TrEMBL record:
Its main location: nucleus. It is an enzyme of class 4 (lyase). It comes from Absidia glauca. This is N-glycosylase/DNA lyase. PANTHER family: 8-OXOGUANINE DNA GLYCOSYLASE (PTHR10242), N-GLYCOSYLASE_DNA LYASE (PTHR10242:SF2). Its EC number is 4.2.99.18. Residues 299-314 have a biased composition (Basic and acidic residues).
Amino acid sequence: MRSELSLAISPGSLNLVGERWPGCSDSTTHSPTPFTVIAHSVFYGVPEHEAQDKQVVDEMNATLRDYFQLDLLSLEEAYGRWSKMDSNFKMKAGYIQGIRMLRQDPWENLICFICSSNNNISRITQMVHKLCLHFGSKIATLDGTDYYSFPTLDALAADGIESKLRQLGFGYRAKYISQTAQKIKKEHPDEQEAWLAGLRQLSYEDTKQALITLPGVGPKVADCICLMSMDHAEAIPVDTHVWQIASRDYGFGKKQNKTLTTLLYNEIGGHFRTLFGQHSGWAHSVLFSAELKSFEHRLSQKDEKGNSVVKEEDSSSNASSRKRQRIKK
């Protein structure tokens, strides 16, 4: 028996934000087990005998709907709303379809973003894989490949973890991972990972401030965690890409700001929250994705005359129009 979960999107338009399960088939048509969903390196599956159990199937369906946040909002409606609010978004949205934020596990998400500091996607993926391989538990073998769970807080709070992580190539991040695990275990011994999950019940600002108290977590990392695992869709992580977008397209003038100060960080985040309103973090992620090399081919498509449909630099009139959209504080 094979069960499928409809993501209610067109083929090829699903682009997920997440770090786990590198190496899985990038397909929703392959079904190595009777109940398996594979989509951009995420898979869930159950044995054949459990696939006949309606309760198990219903639980799997609920888990996937929650993970993909299918009931949170309609991307089609959201893209339409954001396009009406912002001409720059409208220009990019037609080529960057289906950007969907995953509702990731807070503990896993926290450690993954500590690994992301001054790093690239390839190395982050390798680090996450090493964490699972060396400190997680084997959970499945699929097409000859073993898969491991993400390590528990207890596992990463154990003595000697920092040294082992350094040996595995984590560098200074090893200290932050070890110290963060030990801090949460010491201050919340009865809750541990549940304490992190409980932050979802707090306001955006309170959640962010609680995260910043952890070693290796600054404002940007805290905002990433808030957006991708804490149910705060208004969080706007501001990195060099987003700073460039704000300077180039929304009148923040990077030349006048040589460093991304706390004040400027908050102003940029506040601008996008005011501009896009509800779920502004999702809209910001579309603009962010448009800056990535992996999407360059979409933004450089040619029309019949060989002209670029979307250019990196807009005409002065369009740029001026967007600058006027900037909301004065």
